[in-house]
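Support case: user asked for a sample of complex input and structure output to validate their parser. Sending the pair below.
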Amino acid sequence: MAEEAMFDFIHMEAVSYVFQGGEKLAEDEAVSKLEHMGFATGYRLVERLTRESGRYKDELDIMKYICKDLWVTVYKKQIDNLRTNHQGVYVLHDNRFRFLSHMATGKQYLQYAPRYLAFTCGLVRGCLANLGVTCVVTAEVTQLPACKFQIQVQRG
Amino acid sequence: MRSSVSVILSNPPPDTTMSYPDYCTNPHHHQTLLVLVRQVGSQLKSRSFQKLYERISRVGHVKVSDSNGSQRPVWVTYRREYPVENNDWGDFQTHRRVLGIITIGQVGSQSDLNDICKQHESLKVKYSSTLYDSRCIILGLNPDGTIYEADSRNPSRGTSPEPNGGIDGGSHPPTINGHAQSTHIKKISAGSTDRDSGVYETVSSEDKPTDSDSHSESPQGMSEGMMDLKIDTNHVNGSDSGSESTSEVGCCDDSKMDSPRDSAVDSAPDSAHDTSQSSISTSASQSSRLSLQPPSNFKTRALFYPTSEHAVNIESQLQEFVSSLFWVLESKRLDKSQEKLERPPLLCAPFERKDFIGLDMDSRTNKKRCVGRLRKQLADLTLQAGLPTEAIVHYSHAADTLRNCNDWLWLAACFEGLCAASVVMLYPNLRRSFGLQRYSSLGVGGNQGGSGGIGNRSRNGAVNTNSLPTGLDPIIVKQTSKHCLSPDDIIDKYREAIVHYSKYRNAGVVETEASIKAVHVLIEQKRYLMAAEFLSNVVFINLQLSDEEKIARFNALADLYHQIGFHRKASFFRRVAAMRCVAPQNQQPDWGQCYRLLLQTLEGYKISLDPLEFRKDGSQGWPALQVQILQELVGTSRRMGQNALCTRHQAFLVCAMLPHLSESERKETANMLESLSARSGSGPAPLVVQDTGVIIPAVNFLNIPICRSVRVQPPAVGRKAEKKLSQEAEEDTGPFIFSPFSSLTSNTQRAQGKMDFDWVEGDVCEVILDLENPMPFELKVTSMMLITEGAQFESWTSTVVLKAERGPQPVTLRGRPQGAGELKITGYSSTVMGVSSNCRLKFIPHMKIPFYTINVVSALPFIQILTANSNTGSLGSERAVSEESGNLHLSLSAGETQECSVVLHNISSQPVEEISIALESKMDKTLLSQVFQYSEENIQAQLPIQPGGKASVTLYVYASSDFLCPSRMMDESLETSSLVSGSEPPSLVSGGPSSLPSRQSVATSSTRGARTRRTDSSASLLSSRSGSSVRSGSSSSTQAPSSTARTRTTLNTSACTGRTLEATMQVKYSGGSGLLADYCRSTQVTVTVDVTPSLLVTRWDVLPAELPHQCYVVLDLLNCATHEMDLHYTPTKHILIEAGDSCRVPIPIDRCPLATLTQNGSDSESGWGWSSVLGNHVASLVELRWTQGPCDTPGRASLTGITFPPATHDLITMAPIHWDVQVDGQDVVGGTENTGVVGRTLELCVGVTNTSGAPLPPLSLRLTAFQDHQNGTLNYRLDAKMTTTGATKLTTPQLAEGEEFRHCCGLVFFTAGVYKVEVTCSPAAAVTQTSFYENITPAHQHAWKFAPPLEITVTDA
Amino acid sequence: MAVCVSVIGKENSPLYIWVGNGKEELHLHYLAHTALDVIQEKVSAVNKTPGDTRELYLGLLYASEEYKVFGYTTNTRIKFVIITDAANTTLRDNEIRMMFRRLHNMYTNVVCNPFYVPGEQITSREFDKGVGALVAGN
């Protein structure tokens, strides 16, 4: 559908802008810039998306929301697998992550994958932050287009 | 829960209503025996009373093994004061009865003892209706003999005879009181409300006999009395009440049980009484005896202790006391449980009594009611007696009965009891958690605020872990009792009870307490929301209370809310309480208390009086409310007369609330602050609120004004201190100054606030703050100064006024370092609106750098430079030079010399001990040295320059300039002119048109070919100058009088424009301590010299002079100065030239000896090498001096750089040969007249001597005769007019140095006339090696003439 | 119908307060402020009480003689408090709920405004209008 593609393209442009366009940035700077974009987006987005759902009982509840509702709304699919150690670490597996799905699988683009995950890391962090869960979100790709996001909740 | 309409059954007199709710009440109270502990007498210090009271209240739990051997927990509540009205409710809830009294007093004298006893007794009377037993602890007496022994015994002794009475009252009471009760009950039923009388009857009736028989046993009684006391004491020491009670376990009957102690007691007292009699007769006064007499006194058991420390056995005594209370209670309970009354009495709450007067007590409902109420009371007693399970059973039965007869009040009481019993079993720990005393809340706000709701809750939670009294494990209890209410039921029952209570206005207090109990339970259950509901219900209960009580009530609510973690609500009520303290209707407003309470509310409103703290979580608060609270704080503190506090709070209000204040609010709060601070300024020191340890931290206006940035200023250029040694270092690091590395490092230094320049001790240093004024009005910041650490620094206060506008406004703070070392700028202090604050950079939120570090070097001298040019005046007219760099501006006409004195004025306090001066300029060194001159030694000689002293350097400035200024323009003009004005006799050259070699060139020059040659010659690197000079010969010959005019026309176009010479005089100096530290300062004077053109040499040429060893340098001089000048071109000759005028001067000079040529000219491959050599030769000989202008300013010019074209070289250089010509034997010198006669032979001898430094190759010598027609035509064809004898053309042999060659020939003239003979010799064509000539004047046809030509006038014979 | 509408931020500081004119403003402030205690308790109580319908609408927080205080919290810890006249009995719980829903929508719209930084005071004419309509009951 159009508006999905829209989102994809905007994201692509954002990535390419941050990395090529504008002032030349170091890789990590650029990534953190994207991450921040994601954060801001998520922070505002969740305000709107959680309007209809009930109050969340606890952290796990929130994580479930992220995996289901949020992911479906944003990426048109659910997270395929959610794991947690019950000590504030959650791992979200997405076997076919939207932003990576259009890349050729295999090694050749593996190095560029992080660029396409930064925004989403921020997005998740932003949502959680607004939902009252301060955390660090990291992502890793071993085999395109699958990737996993690790959420490390900051206690206290 | 509260029924909207409260049903009021009765309208009783107010005295029967319980007016003092106990806000620390707690379900467990139902289970406890109430004991009143009082301080009596005047001697006892309240501190020691407090100590004792604490010890006593620690004995809150006693275990007694009851008649059937099972352990009974007995709990006690100690109270220091208890209103009688509440006591009256004792029937309604028995735990409200005061069962025991303990008085504590200190005696120093008999009278003390007396009034102690009196007070004790009066207390007993007060509570007699419910009292079981009492103790009187008397300090200051010791059991074993002291001087007070007799007296000390008196009370015990005094009591002793009556102790039977005492015994009856104290130990027998079970039975007796039982009777008393019953009888009195009868009375009640009979309708009399007076119960006390009944009791007294019984007591008094039984006093008499004991009294009598006590007398009989007096003698041994005494000793026993002594014994008894001892026994009593050490018995108590030896074994605690536990053992005591066990000893009693055996006997089940009350009377027997008590008997042993009984006997002991009564035997002791009466003997004592006896001695008392005797002692009284001897010593004691009548009054004292009387004081001991009142019979009620005898019922008291007194405990003597020298001091509270000696009261080791007080605990055991208490246990004994408690157990005695217990036994009385127990007996009552048993009675009630057993008795079956056909007409049960009606128990009622105080306010009810009236309602039942005249009611038919025999009606079924009322019977039931009586029974129900009795059952309920029994339940109460059972609960107190430590049998909760049984109590529950009783309660539930009672409840059923009462419900049937709609006795809501007592039903409610029943429920309450039920809940209490259940709570006792389910939550035994609850009793621990009511530790907080009623007024604890009035203590320091901080500490309570400190523990958040969670803290409180966890505190309750923590209690659960505490070990319970043995045998009271709730779990077990739960298992055992089936009737026990479930947690939820408890709450429901409480709710129900409260609903019922709420129907009775007079039950308000009971209702309140019930609610509070419920809240305690709910807290224990961690159901805070519901607790909140109950609390809000409490708020609705309206009791008529005194202000003081109201305040207490709100405080209690606040505490409870605090416990359930509702801090905002707590603070809300705390504030209401505070406002109550000073409510307008309040007669004696207590501002102090109000203030203390307000302080406690802060936490709930998220206000921390420390601005730094506050900034952190300030965002969490509710600005509108915060502002109000703060304003109230301000107001209260002002009413308290605490101006300092008041100001501090207002300051905080302004500072912390600024972001939330509107423009107008900012204005008014600020005004308020100013008016307050006017009364009492607020310094940066924290304040302590007296009589509460609360500390009000300082308020520093970090945000008024807002400091955006701090800029530490480097010293002014001239004041900068440089490392002396680092000079070279800087040289070689020079190129890298802007390398990324250094810039990088410098950046990192910035980051740490490390300045990359130094300040100098004793110098005024500046820091610029960019301040922003958040206020809508002009902000006056007074006594603003820097706060520094490290090196000593004298910072100067300054007052600034910040305009009321957005955006930073720069403010400069100055100071003077007092010592060398590292200086840290950590912040600034300021006084705004009367509030002085220290603003540390590290606390200012947006300041990244916590402090700035500057290195201060030790003091250096500083000199100011004054300059004066000597001729425009003496030092008087010195021009002070701007500090950083002096500027000396001179305008001289070219060639002029001026000396100006540069004065170094040491305006510092340090002597200048070292100085070095260097000139720097873009000019090349030679020129520089030519223009500027000064004497280094002179300066060094003047060192050291003392503070205030001066030293001067004289700088000689010579306006050097290039005086040679030819121009093509002129050439062109000449070109044309020469064409028109044919050839004229050279005006300068004496003698005829000597055919100079140049001449030929001129001849050709006027032809087109010549011009082309010139052009291409000019093309061949001939400088325009040489070009001009090439033809200057001809021009000289063709110079027209109009030449001056012509030069004028060309003046402006000619190159005679001024130029500027610039140089800076770098003065490095040092001295004082700075010198030792290898630092120095440098300053500089920029000297600018505008050179206005004065004299110009526009053209020049060389002409032969009369004397062979000389020649003339002919110069066309142009005076382009504005004044006429008096020019001395030779030592003797001088000429006046009008301004702008030009004139031509010949200057005779010695020709250049060949030697110099051969020496210097070797390098020359072309004639120009020579020409420069010759040029120098000429320049060295010619010096033009002049004076011009109004004050005859002297000037001099040299011809340096002048060159001559090859054509003229022969003229300038000495000829290699010397002519020696003789006519008829007589020498011919230039211009001598020679005469001849027609036909006669003249002998002409020519001698050529080699004068050159080297041997001369063969020369061809030629003699040519001609006639000059004086019209420019020469006639060489004289064959018809004369002839010669001998060769006129021959070649000389090689001439060695100095060798002479002579040749003679004869001349014969045929006609008269003037003849001329030209004698020339030139290198012989045949000669092969012409190298020599090549050397001398290459690329040119050589010829040396004998000039002027020989002239012979021939006359006819 | 409502006498006070307030939006309260994560950190329990007010982002927006509307007070019906003619009402003693500060008193209503106090009510709203103390209501936060109840809200906090209710929200934190979620896990404990199993039977709790985890609705954003928190219902009646507490009532004083003259006012009723209702609460609502978003998942993002934003709280809404609406105070109504206790006298006004016509107001049904469901209507209150709807008011809160509308308020919530309005708030989310504010957040979508690029110039609004979450956590700051709400100053939006649009929002004012919305609240005006809300309290007017249309």
